[in-house]
Amino acid sequence: MHNRPPLYLAQIGNIYFLSVGDSLRWAAEGVAREELSPKVHRLLARLDREEALNQPIPQPVPDNDCA
User: Fold this and answer.
1) 12-56, pLDDT tens digit by residue?
2) Strands 15-18 and 8-12
3) From CA 47, how far away is CA 23, in angstroms rounded?
């Protein structure tokens, strides 16, 4: 069984606040990218780029071997 994150960020009563990127990926999960419509393919590619840009920049590890 997949342990995937919920498809919504919050719920108040019967109102769900969706995580659009996760929902789109979940909906397209079993479909090869070549089989997706051009619009969905572009949305996924744009989502990938946005997430890559928002990744924290790794900090260099200090070299403690300097004498």
Assistant:
1) 788 777 777 877 888 888 888 788 889 888 888 888 888 888 777
2) antiparallel
3) 12
Cβ 18 vs Cβ 9: under 8 Å: yes
| Residue where the block lists tokens 């909906």 | 27
Query: What does pTM read for this prediction?
Result: 0.56
For the beta carbon of residue 17, count every other beta carbon within 10 angstroms.
9
Looking at residue 62, the DSSP 8-state letter turns out to be: P
Q: Which residues contact 16 (CB under 8 A, 6 or more apart)?
A: 8, 10
CA distance 6 to 22: 8
How do residues 30-40 score in pLDDT, each as one tens digit? Answer: 888 788 889 88
